[in-house]
Amino acid sequence: MATTPPPEGPPPEVTDDQLAAMHDDPRFVELKRTLFRFSVPVLLAALAWYLVYVLLSAYARDFMGIVLFGNINLGLILGLTQFVVTFWVTIAYSRFAASKFDKQSSDLRDDIMNGGKR
């Protein structure tokens, strides 16, 4: 990720010792745990819905072929919900990152790179 250097110059170099200290920092562990708690359930839900759609398409053709109106059948509507799920995942992650993840990661990065000084 590219960042814009602050007006006083580029950020200081991070040493291997600082990186090792970051991995042992309880805030970093909690940050990883927070991301895991959000991303894994969302990923599993999205993949489960995709798998259900594929299985219905393969084995429940009569069900997927139910005409709802005009030339629109249930399979088409359920297929379009894949886009809805994708947008929902994107919006949910964006809100999650903005509300919880970005502030914590920014504070941790500042502490590691600048010794807590902004």
Features:
two-stranded antiparallel sheet; 2 strands; 118 residues; elongated; 4 helices; single chain
Can you describe this structure?
By secondary structure, the chain is mostly helical. The protein has one domain. It is built from four helices and two strands, in the order αααββα. Strand 1 and strand 2 form a beta hairpin. The longest helix has 41 residues, at 74-114. The radius of gyration is 22 Å and the shape is elongated. The model has no long low-confidence stretch (mean pLDDT 84).
Short description:
With 118 residues, the chain is mainly α. The chain has helices at residues 16-24, 26-59, 61-64, 74-114; strands spanning 67-69, 72-73. The chain has one domain.
Helix content estimate = over 70%
Separation of termini? 19 Å
Number of beta-strand segments:
2
Strand/helix succession: HHHEEH
CA radius of gyration is 22 Å
Q: What characteristic shape results from the CA principal axes?
A: elongated
